[in-house]
Automatic annotation (TrEMBL):
Keywords: Signal. This is Taurine ABC transporter substrate-binding protein. It is found in: Periplasm. GO terms for biological process: alkanesulfonate transmembrane transport. Residues 1-25 form the signal peptide. Transmembrane segments: none annotated. It comes from Corticimicrobacter populi. GO terms for cellular component: periplasmic space.
Length: 328
């Protein structure tokens, strides 16, 4: 490029950057899942595009294992997934950074036994067919529950099904129990009994949570976009936390989550109430040592269960509060 033209292009880029604020225009793909969260209202309203001054391709996935593969291939730059697949991805040394805790899981994920399957106590799971999406937070929680109950996982027929396939299998009576999330969870609870929740397991030392992560190469090129994405999410959480009852009573909010996730209007309030959403100050604290420790503990458990090959000596490189700290 001619020096004068190059100088003009640089100057023009600086002017446009100033005109649009901190975020610079880009095109990127975001992986989201069918789990209802307050920020999906902002997603439906196009607020992420406005804040980042970018074109976003929102791509829906049914489980974390699929998300990991898409992130690893470079097809997805920002992604929503659970702490268990996150630990598996970090243990594979994928170039990723956790920049936001999307939700702390409580009753939003549960183990449900089907009515008529002959499961009254945890010990009755022996010999039964239990469905869960492999390498997901639900899968991790199922294994943690079996360990707590001193049940050998090999004595249970654990099958790998995505939430949509869990609904179909449950309806046909092909499975006896499932550990999953909505919309599959509510369908199962309508004709089943809850044995344990992820909130219960958190109290027993096996916490799970969902996160937003970003590919490191994209974050290095567009740190302002990552911070803008985090701000929109946190603003959505603040709007919900200000008055959850009023937020849930707003039909427009519920309709948007129904459209994005496929969950029913009746299911959504229970899902949102069953998760915890952290404010900015809490995020900054959680994204440091607590997340590093959780990833290490989860990875050690996954290795013990034969789900991953190696545990890294340190997971600090895979989580950072700096994008939240940079929010203005």
């Amino acid at each position: 490029m001619h020096p004068v033209r190059k100088l003009f292009s640089i100057s023009l880029a600086l002017v446009l950057g100033s005109a649009y604020g901190a975020a610079t225009a880009a095109e990127f793909t975001v992986a989201y899942q069918t789990i209802p969260v307050p920020s999906q209202v902002a997603q439906a309203d196009g607020l992420y595009e406005q804040a980042t001054q970018s074109k976003i391709d929102w791509r829906k996935f049914d489980a974390g294992a699929e998300v990991i593969n898409a992130v690893a291939s470079g097809d997805v730059q920002i992604a929503y997934l659970g702490s268990s697949p996150l630990a598996a991805a970090a243990s594979r040394r994928l170039p990723i950074e956790t920049f936001l805790i999307a939700a702390e899981l409580g009753t939003s994920e549960e183990l449900v036994a089907r009515d008529g399957a002959g499961i009254s106590t945890p010990q009755d799971l022996v010999g039964k067919k239990v469905a869960t999406p492999f390498v997901s937070t639900s899968h991790y929680s199922l294994l943690a529950a079996l360990k707590h109950w001193q049940i050998d996982p090999k004595s249970v027929e654990i099958v790998n099904l995505t939430p949509p396939n869990i609904i179909a299998a449950w309806t046909r009576g092909d499975i006896d129990a499932t550990y999953t999330w909505d919309p599959a969870l509510s369908r199962a609870k309508a004709s089943g009994k809850v044995l344990i929740s992820s909130g219960d397991l958190a109290k027993l030392g096996a916490p799970t949570f969902d996160v937003w992560l970003v590919r490191s190469d994209f974050a290095q090129q567009h740190p302002e976009i990552v911070s803008a994405f985090a701000k929109v999410t946190l603003d959505s959480y603040a709007d919900y936390q200000k008055d959850p009852q009023a937020w849930l009573a707003n039909k427009d909010n519920i309709d948007k989550l129904v459209r994005i996730t496929g969950a029913s209007a009746e299911e959504i309030p229970n899902v949102l109430k069953g998760s915890g959403y952290l404010a900015a100050a809490q995020q900054i604290e959680a994204l440091g040592a607590p997340t590093v420790a959780a990833l290490a503990d989860t990875s050690a458990f996954l290795k013990e269960q034969g789900r991953i090959d190696d545990v890294l000596p340190d997971y600090a490189a895979y989580t950072t509060p700096r994008y939240v700290q940079a929010i203005k």
